[in-house]
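hey so i finally got around to running both of the ones u sent me last week. sorry it took forever, my laptop kept dying halfway thru and i had to restart like 3 times lol. anyway pasting them below in the order u listed, first the sequence line then the structure token line for each. didnt double check formatting much so if smth looks off just lmk and ill redo it

first one:
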Amino acid sequence: METVRLVMVEALPRPDTPAFAKYGGATINVYTTELSEHAAVELATREVAEAGWQLQAVDETYLLTRAELPEATPEGVAYFEQALLDGVVVVIHTYPATPQEGDLVH
């Protein structure tokens, strides 16, 4: 059975990057063939830093098999498959630096 570990983190753009003025932060998903939780979090931390982001918190980490992938998200299947080939895939979901019209702010 082919398995990857998904590490989901919250991150902020580093001040020395172009993303700093453009984005308020990001949720970053790291798909890796590193199955140990500790090793996967270490890898995710390095990958996030290399991408120009400061890891703020690890939200979640879990093992994922092909059978568990929801069919409604073809991009999730693509990330899973690419991680099996490359060992790691980093997916960055950014949000703007300032609230947008209609955003709820607490």
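and the second one:
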Amino acid sequence: MSVHIGLMIWKEMKQRDLSSSFLANELKLSKVRTQDILNSASIDTELLMNISEILNYNFFHYYEDSKAFSKIETQSKQKSAQEIERLKHLIAEKNKMIDLKDQFIKTQTNLIGLLEKGQYI
């Protein structure tokens, strides 16, 4: 999916009846540089973030909907799910160890009690 981000910014500005002069002033750029941005198919991410904040609009969503990001998101979710399962398994193993230690302490306490009774007889 090819995104002409300058066009998307321009369209959003037109819907709000905002001029390129307004954007130039907000960005503290020349009108020529601002017009170059609006004519550009691609843009620096920091600049896009600034424009998104100025216009209170998430222009990044045009990229999030692309197949590449969808695939990355799916892979990320799968890795997260695997990591969650691994951590659950570790927690279960740790809980088993704690139970075994508790049983060992109980057995040792009983043994000490029996030994103490034997010493005092």
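quick thing i noticed on the 2nd:
Residues 75-121 form one domain.
anyway thats it, ttyl
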